[in-house]
């Protein structure tokens, strides 16, 4: 069985000036006469009990996934944290504080965040952490869980507030990595190690959702019209080249004429075809061209 009088051999913990005295190299407390009297009375009273009930009533068990800090007469009684095992507790003078060192999670409640372009969004997330230094977690802060949650909310608003909404959607992995680094650095004096941060939900107000939906639909329609116009432009260029070719080659026009007659005649319909000689069509075309060229001269007169 271990006793809480055992001294550890861990190196002194460094910190700022406020924590330097608290986390300085452990020195065995010096008790006064009255304190020694209380300790002697507690120890004697403990072991004066029957051997059967004394070990059961005056021991504490620290599990492997826990660390403990023992305060004797209000003072830290050892260097570093006590690991898993059984320890004697002297009533009235010993106070054991246990800390779970397993990985834990903290939910970041949904909160409103104003993005760089002034857009209001609702964001929530999860922070995964574990206690890396139980001594700091007990001596350095009163409630490290609540403090880490509030710090995560603050850092989340700070990081997202510097980015636009489209950047938040596109750079999600970079954002959570930045949050993890900021939180890990800020919680290090408390003995907390932040393993990762996740953004679980990202919501927009209903009015903004509808506005963005209308904008996306208008953008899709505009792209469709551009594609249609580009297709018509290419088709017009092809038709123009074909018309120029037929105009320069009389045989091409006659061949196209015969193909049209054949196509119409093969269909089951009641259309009556009255073919005209291609020479007549050519004469009519030349007459139309001459009239169009003569019209400006008449107007000038």
UniProtKB/TrEMBL annotation:
<dbReference type="Pfam" id="PF01145">
    <property type="entry name" value="Band_7"/>
</dbReference>
<dbReference type="GO" id="GO:0005886">
    <property type="term" value="C:plasma membrane"/>
</dbReference>
<comment type="similarity">
    <text>Belongs to the band 7/mec-2 family.</text>
</comment>
<dbReference type="InterPro" id="IPR001972">
    <property type="entry name" value="Stomatin_HflK_fam"/>
</dbReference>
<dbReference type="InterPro" id="IPR036013">
    <property type="entry name" value="Band_7/SPFH_dom_sf"/>
</dbReference>
<dbReference type="InterPro" id="IPR001107">
    <property type="entry name" value="Band_7"/>
</dbReference>
<dbReference type="InterPro" id="IPR043202">
    <property type="entry name" value="Band-7_stomatin-like"/>
</dbReference>
<feature type="domain" description="Band 7">
    <location>
        <begin position="57"/>
        <end position="216"/>
    </location>
</feature>
<protein>
    <recommendedName>
        <fullName>Band 7 domain-containing protein</fullName>
    </recommendedName>
</protein>
<dbReference type="GO" id="GO:0098552">
    <property type="term" value="C:side of membrane"/>
</dbReference>
């Amino acid at each position: 069985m271990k006793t809480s009088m055992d001294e550890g051999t861990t190196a002194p913990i460094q910190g700022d000036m406020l924590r330097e005295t608290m986390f300085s190299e452990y020195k065995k407390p010096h008790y006064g006469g009255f304190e020694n009297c209380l300790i002697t009375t507690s120890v004697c009273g403990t072991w004066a009990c029957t051997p059967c009930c004394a070990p059961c009533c005056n021991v504490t068990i620290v599990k492997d996934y826990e660390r403990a800090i023992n305060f004797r007469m209000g003072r830290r009684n050892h260097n570093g944290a006590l690991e898993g095992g059984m320890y004697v507790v002297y009533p009235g003078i010993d106070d054991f504080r246990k800390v779970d060192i397993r990985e834990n999670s903290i939910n970041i409640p949904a909160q409103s965040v104003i993005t760089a372009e002034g857009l209001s969004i609702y964001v929530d997330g999860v922070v995964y952490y574990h206690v890396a230094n139980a001594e700091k977690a007990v001596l350095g802060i009163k409630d490290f869980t609540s403090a880490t949650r509030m710090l995560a909310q603050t850092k989340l608003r700070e990081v997202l507030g510097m980015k636009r909404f489209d950047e938040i959607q596109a750079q999600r992995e970079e954002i959570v990595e930045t949050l993890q680094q900021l939180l890990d650095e800020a919680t290090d004096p408390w003995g907390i190690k932040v393993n990762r941060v996740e953004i679980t939900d990202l919501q927009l107000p209903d009015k903004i959702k509808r506005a963005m939906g209308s904008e996306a639909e208008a953008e899709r329609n505009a792209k469709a019209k551009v594609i249609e116009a580009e297709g018509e432009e290419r088709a017009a260029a092809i038709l123009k080249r074909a018309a120029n070719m037929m105009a320069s080659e009389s045989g091409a026009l006659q061949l196209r004429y015969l193909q049209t007659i054949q196509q119409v005649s093969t269909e089951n319909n009641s259309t009556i075809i009255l073919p005209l000689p291609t020479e007549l069509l050519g004469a009519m075309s030349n007459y139309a061209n001459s009239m169009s060229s003569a019209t400006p001269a008449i107007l000038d007169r």
